[in-house]
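Appendix B. Extra example for self-study. Work through it before the problem class; the solution is given directly after the inputs so you can check yourself.
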Amino acid sequence: MKRVYALEEYCVGCRLCEINCTVAHSESKDIIWAFKVEEPRPLPGILVEEVKPISFGLQCRHCDDAECIKSCITGAMHRDERGAVVCNADKCVGCWTCIMACPYGTIKRNEDKGNVVSKCDLCPDLPQPACVSNCPNEALIYVDRG
Amino acid sequence: MLEYVIIGNSAAAVGAIEGIRQRDNTGSITVISEEPYYAYSRPLISYLLAGTADDKKMAYRDVGFYEDNGVSLLLGVKAVSIDTTSKEVILSNGKAVTYDKLLIATGGKPFVPPMKGGDKKGIYTFIKRDDAERLKAVAKPGTKAVVIGGGLIGLKAAEGLVKCGVDVTVVELADRILSTILDEQAAAMVQEVLEGHNINVILNDTVTEVVGDNTVSGVILKNGQSIECDMVITAIGVRPNTDVAANTDISINRGIKVDDHMRANVEDIYAAGDVAEAYDIVYEDQRVTPIWPNAYMQGEVAGRNMAGDDVVFDSGFARNSISFFGLPMITAGIIKPVGNEYEVTSIVQPDKKVYKKAVFKSNRLVGFIRLTDIDRAGILTGLIKEKIDVSPFKDKLLDEDFGFVYMPKSYRKEKLLGVKRK
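Solution. Structure tokens for the complete assembly:
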């Protein structure tokens, strides 16, 4: 399946991926409305690691052998029909076992939104994930590497 | 067509069903379980007690799970023994179920210590859904409870009871609460939070006698102190529920002994979950590790192998993520090492309730504690599991911004880009 990969040689650490992820997961899909008005503001599913001069975006790897799915105590974390690893917020109780399990550290606590986890969903309603579309230096690519 | 039989119906059983169906869509699967329920999330029984989880939340899989996977359910019936020669499981109703491949996934059972007055009404355990329902029926505001054991189960029961308005005292024999997952420093910080929520914690002591006529009216501690209460919850520990394998040629130590394929010593019999004693990659020894993720993963490995695959279970070690009154903690592996082959680093920020500790052995991470600041803790879990040489970034491991950026580029690329190291 297609996944997002970061090319650290091209990443400038601008964090536009994080911002556009938040916008893409907002109600309004509008950057100003999403940041200025919407409560709670969606957490970005991508995070940027940076120790100058190195930086890169990192989000859920949607692992074939996903530790988070196997570890989830409620069955909230699952694989959808696209093959993406997603969390059913109605089932999630915020035990954070997936945070303990994810070897990439890409699952976040969303305490504003009823204590459920927040993570990359590969933007199911978009042609490609918003972080990839909005990266100004093509440091994020969306490709099938098996 | 193979006949798969699974005794038990929790995480390991569900893992096995999903494991079997990765390989074999035609074999029949029969699940035998004493509990009359579809698989539910056992750790959520404290939420059930506190009234924050309903049936829908408790369900571990969708309603159609068993039908979709072609599973026949024998619920509310107990598997009492196994005839390993005729390959049959004998049930409590006198019937027998034949198997080609058998998985024993019977979990654990509470260890209830013999104590004076231990036969009175009002003494509960806290392992199963029914336990939580029974407790909920009596946990009324203003009642008093004594919880024997300040481990994961005891404290989850205590938290649930407090949320029901019950006045709770926890009595723990060790010198600290949560002694299997926390060291002294972390335990003290968590205890403070529990006490802030009116849980009375008594350490270095235990209940020697339960008093009352027919029903519990109090307990007497080893130090002589009396505590009035309406209910007692025993949460001293859980033992592997190996009953069904007793008097068979299946080899049992503490749990059912299994190899790295989750096979018991008798052909075509496997064990997984809290009943199994499997290899622990941190302690480098056979151990019972009664945690949910291990149960699922062992079950899945067992299921795949039962269906003809050849996969090993290589991720066994203790790890827990749990919160009390909103204070989260994630701990894994060896958290309180004994011996000079270990190296320890830690950070304490008492005002923020932050505590972080890492335990190393020969430049490998073998354990950690993260209190409050639990974000990205899974990276550490991964380092333990993959036995990574952490020496290039050891000093960064507890930093707030620790991540792959501190790791060698070749390792980072392999992990993040799927590029294999040369």
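Self-check: Residues 123-236 of chain B form a domain with the FAD/NAD(P)-binding domain fold (CATH 3.50.50.60). If your reasoning did not lead you there, revisit section 3.
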